[in-house]
Automatic annotation (TrEMBL):
Record domain Acyl-CoA dehydrogenase/oxidase C-terminal: where: 251-368
Source organism of the structure: Amycolatopsis saalfeldensis
SUPFAM superfamilies xrefs: Acyl-CoA dehydrogenase C-terminal domain-like (SSF47203), Acyl-CoA dehydrogenase NM domain-like (SSF56645)
Cofactor(s) recorded in Swiss-Prot or TrEMBL: FAD
UniProt key word Lyase: no
Keywords attached to this entry: FAD, Flavoprotein, Oxidoreductase
UniProt lineage: Bacteria, Bacillati, Actinomycetota, Actinomycetes, Pseudonocardiales
Recorded family membership: Belongs to the acyl-CoA dehydrogenase family.
Name of the protein described by the UniProt record: Acyl-CoA dehydrogenase
Keyword Iron: no
Length: 405
């Protein structure tokens, strides 16, 4: 059962499908060898997909969330690792494009044009061992120097760092006026002081090559500090740029892996002449229903972002809503894989077949932000009317967010 898409969405999904089928052929090798699928990225580049979310006025395809999400899902049906790596480029560019449409900020236009030209590939590198990746604080230090800051720290899970030219990252500016602030900065990955350590050796999502990145006195000019907020605050701009885009994007990727596994299982059952078995029909039906339930929430969310309704309420409610989409999609994907194991038996367990890789890849979904525990806690607190952190509301946020006294 395919999603019912608009002609524009369908055209992009068909293109993504051609790429995904090729990526599927290559996925086993990258999984086994623990290598980044550089040739997939070249195919994405050649197909123009690296400028998918660049606005049409700036020479891109102008894809927003409703177009990006089915593309990510279809790519993930072939190879989840490539789709997740691509997300780290596509999603930030989409965020900038939506802000640029409202503000026409020259710096954003410049970056989007660079991306269109293929001179800019993005990554979002904020995770640190021992600190929840909720964009409220950082163990990386930012020290004020002439014209900017020097960042020192170590980041983990740097997906897409194998091909990215630049990334966004976070650091804590301890000595800021009025108390410590979290800086959201943009850095070039080839600049002095940046070292990528080949630490990635995981159970699944191996092709993402999400290695550690060490920052040693990395200089960030003032203009590249794109946002700052007091630490341990929920900020309206972080909701709009990070949570609103990353959560549905991750959701689409993990839904795509599960949809790919279902598709593969259905083909296998057809080949073996087993489609008439009512027990198997029950399982396949249940899996399809779980996937459709995820899609329903993902696309409801996309509509709430596009219409900007998500940004009219309070910030905690908005972050809880974003996290809930990812929670449902991740847990439904895990459940789909488990139910398909019941159907496939030993075929699910052999490295000779692709299902086993998909099964492992999906396991990353529930602890990627916002993780299961954190989401349930946030949603529960929100429903109960408990404030988890102080908020910076839409009229208080900005380049330099401050709560009104
Ligand atoms: C395949 C993959 C790719 C990734 N790519 C990127 C990337 O490109 N950039 C990036 O910055 N990060 C990336 N991440 C990392 C991600 O952002 C998270 O930081 C990471 O998955 C969480 O790691 P952790 O379990 O070490 O962290 P923690 O956040 O420390 O979580 C540990 C566990 O504690 C739980 N927990 C326990 N008690 C509580 C509580 N009271 N409240 C809330 N939670 C609690 C959490 O739910 C979680 O399950 C990626 C992760 C994966 C799996």
């Amino acid at each position: 059962m395919q999603p019912l898409l608009t002609p524009g969405q369908q055209e992009l999904v068909d293109q993504a499908g051609k790429l995904a089928d090729v990526f599927a052929e290559r996925a086993a090798v990258h999984d086994r060898e623990n290598t980044f699928p550089h040739e997939n990225y070249e195919d994405l580049r050649e197909a123009g997909f690296l400028r998918l979310s660049v606005p049409e006025e700036l020479g891109g395809f102008g894809a927003g969330l409703p177009e990006i999400l089915p593309v990510l899902e279809r790519l993930a049906m072939g190879d989840g690792a490539t789709a997740l790596a691509f997300t780290m480029h596509l999603s930030p560019l989409g965020q900038w494009a939506s802000v640029w449409r409202r503000t026409k900020a020259p710096r954003l236009a410049e970056m989007l044009v660079k991306a269109r030209e293929g001179d800019l590939v993005w990554a979002s590198i904020t995770s640190e061992t021992g600190l929840r990746n909720d964009i409220t604080d950082s163990k990386t230090s930012a020290v004020k120097v002439d014209g900017g800051f020097e960042l020192t720290g170590r980041k983990s899970f740097a997906t897409n760092s194998a091909v990215a030219t630049h990334c966004s990252t976070t650091a804590r500016y301890e000595d800021a006026d009025g108390g410590p602030r979290l800086l959201l900065c943009q850095i070039a990955l080839d600049q002095p002081g940046v070292t990528i350590h080949p630490t990635w050796n995981t159970m699944g999502m191996r092709g993402t090559q999400s290695n550690d990145v060490e920052l040693d006195k990395v200089f960030v000019e003032d203009a590249a500090v794109v946002h700052s907020l007091p630490v341990k605050h929920l900020d309206a701009r972080v909701l709009e740029t990070v949570w609103a885009w990353a959560m549905p994007a991750f959701s689409a990727v993990y839904t795509g892996i599960a949809a790919g596994a279902l598709d593969w299982t259905v083909k296998s059952l057809r080949q073996r002449g087993k489609t008439g078995d009512p027990v198997l029909q029950d399982v396949i039906g249940e899996c399809q229903i779980l996937i459709e339930a995820s899609r329903a929430l993902i696309y409801r969310h996309a509509e709430e972002v596009t219409s900007r309704r998500l940004f009219t309420g309070d910030v905690q409610d908005g972050v809880a809503r974003c996290s809930m989409v990812k929670y449902v999609a991740a847990n439904n994907a895990v459940q789909v894989m488990q139910r398909l194991v019941d159907v496939l038996g030993g075929m699910s367990y052999t490295k000779a077949l692709p299902f086993e890789r998909m099964w492992r890849d999906v396991q990353a979904s529930t602890f990627m932000p916002m993780g299961n525990l954190a989401t349930r806690k946030l949603v529960g607190a929100n429903v109960l009317g408990v404030r988890t952190l102080p908020e910076i509301s839409p009229d208080e946020t900005g380049h330099d967010s401050r709560a009104k006294a």
